[in-house]
Amino acid sequence: MKEKLQYFPITSYSIIMGLSGLTIAFGKFYHMQWMPRIFYDSLLFFTFSLFLTISILYGLKAIRHPEEVKADFKHRIRINFFSAISISLILLSIAFMTYWPFLSMVLWWIGTILQTILMFYTISFWIQHNFEIHHMNPAWFIPVVGNMLVPIAGVEYMPKAFSFFYFAVGFFFWVILFVIFLNRAIFHHQLPQKFIPTLFILIAPPAIGFIAYIRLTQSWDNFAIFMLFIAYFFVILLLFLYRSFKNLEFFISWWAFTFPLMAITIASVVAYQITHQTIFKYFAFALILLALITVGFVLWKTIEKMKQGEICIKED
């Protein structure tokens, strides 16, 4: 048990990202009267309880094995997953926004402060260390996604200018990092198997950016349409890349591609709410079905690996 705690992975927070996204999607479907409330309520409190459990376990790891946490902070890949903690807090804030506004505000403030610290620390880490192009992978987008999430609940708790700062930073780094990633993907070695599922993270920045932009401006304009359609483009692109996902060994990082599917599902519901165009409703139902199948599959693989004792082990 001691060894399991020592190697408890920071990537576990990607599970909360996926389940929180699904909770928010269930909430949107409930408010549209497309789904009973019980699914939203049940998953909301299950996800919050799981977040507390993971946080306690990683907190115990930090107390008993601080050298392992320091190693995670200095790791060229795992450092990006620390932002999954702040993202999980912000996502839970969004999920609780209509259910329990006070708790939502508390979670948002904690998540936003932590996101700000982790954002500056991670970017400083990138600048202060020498990286080879093969170190680049879609996990680098995780700190960026966190910035774009801030305005979704943030417009309720702070002036819009505050949220625009995070939106601007997130959008800027999304464009920059995507150019670097495309260069790495096309002109250099293929991604390691462990990180191929994280290609789904490419969907998240434009999908979340669309939702955040709508929250900030309340405007269905050309830029909003641009962000939404870019997100749809990445969904279609990944369908064409399906061969890359065959016969992959399971890693906990697979949870990273569940959250982006929730993001584009929610974006489709928002688009339908604004335009009342039926096509977006069809997209929302198709995408949530795909998301549910994906979460079910990844959950099954996670439980299977836990039974085999292959989750909390030393990683390269």
Query: pLDDT below 50 for ≥5 consecutive residues: which ranges?
Result: none
**Topology pattern, helix = H, strand = E:** HHHHHHHHHHHH
CATH homologous superfamily title: Voltage-dependent anion channel
Tell me the total number of β-strands.
0
Distance between the termini: 20 Å
**Judging by the overall fold, what is the CATH architecture?**
Alpha/alpha barrel
Tally of helical segments: 12
Topology overview:
Elements: H1 2-6, H2 13-31, H3 37-64, H4 66-74, H5 83-95, H6 101-128, H7 142-157, H8 160-187, H9 204-217, H10 222-240, H11 258-275, H12 278-307
Helix pairs in contact: 2-3, 2-5, 2-11, 2-12, 3-4, 5-6, 5-7, 6-7, 7-8, 7-9, 8-9, 9-10, 9-11, 10-11, 11-12
Briefly characterize the structure:
The chain is an all-alpha fold and 316 residues long.
Account of the 3D structure:
The protein has 316 residues and is an all-alpha fold. The chain has one domain: Glycosyltransferase (Alpha/alpha barrel). Helix content is 72%, strand content 0%. The chain is built from twelve helices and no strands.
Core attributes:
mainly alpha, globular, Glycosyltransferase, 316 residues, 12 helices, single chain
